Amino acid sequence: MKDTIQLTSSAPSDDLALFIESFWMIENPSDKDEELSTFPDGGIDLYFFHSAQYPLHVSLVGLETGASMGSMPSHSRLLGVRLKILAAEYLLDMTVADIINDRITLNNGFAGINQDDLFSFDTFCEKLSCYFNSQLTASIDPRKKIMSELIYRTKGAITVTEIAKSANWSSRQINRYFNKWLGLALKSYCDILRFRNSFDTLKMGELFPEEGFNDQSHYIKLIKKYSHLTPKQLAQDENDRFVQLYSED
């Protein structure tokens, strides 16, 4: 990873773990802008960005299905929370299906976060945790809980039929839920999770994971689909741009 880019992450409390993957922060304290590439990771992200030009900018980012490139301005920081699939319904109370591969700007002051909070990662995490706990007013459908836990426990290496049987929820209803709240089918989401979880293998320089894929050709095809690169190119990261390969999550 570029020496100029600093990464920090924190796990949520147990009572929010069903809905939140992590809180995170990326900083560029240097005097020059840095190019970064990101890939689909199965997360819905809330962004809180600070720079000289934008003291506080808040946005909600839907699921991504392709690689993207952006710039991290000098002396800027981006704090965020990566949300899991049930967060759309239970924490945000809004569908993100219409912002797949897109984002919307939220009002400054969302969740009670102000500019000063962006300079204390602990305070940021605490305030957002309190806010999200206050949003949990509805009881959780046990079928959705089982579905979500299976998807993340298996890192996407599970079939729709297996989930439907375990959750006692039909495949048609599950896919209807995914399309309504997230904007894509369950199988596509599981493919993205398998792609995301192959990063751990690539970090170690191994070009084929031991779990989650039946054969190497299938794995290479999936890597190319979501990154437009081969596993070898992704692992080499010649320009130190692939921020997710160095995430602490």
UniProtKB/TrEMBL annotation:
Keyword flag DNA-binding: yes
UniProt-recorded Gene Ontology molecular function terms: DNA-binding transcription factor activity; sequence-specific DNA binding
Coiled coil: none
Location of the HTH araC/xylS-type domain: 144-237
Entries under InterPro entries matching the protein: DUF6597, HTH_AraC
Domain of life per record: Bacteria
Keywords (A to Z) from UniProt: DNA-binding
Name of protein: AraC-like DNA-binding protein
Origin species: Marinomonas rhizomae
The organism's taxonomic lineage, starting at the top: Bacteria, Pseudomonadati, Pseudomonadota, Gammaproteobacteria, Oceanospirillales
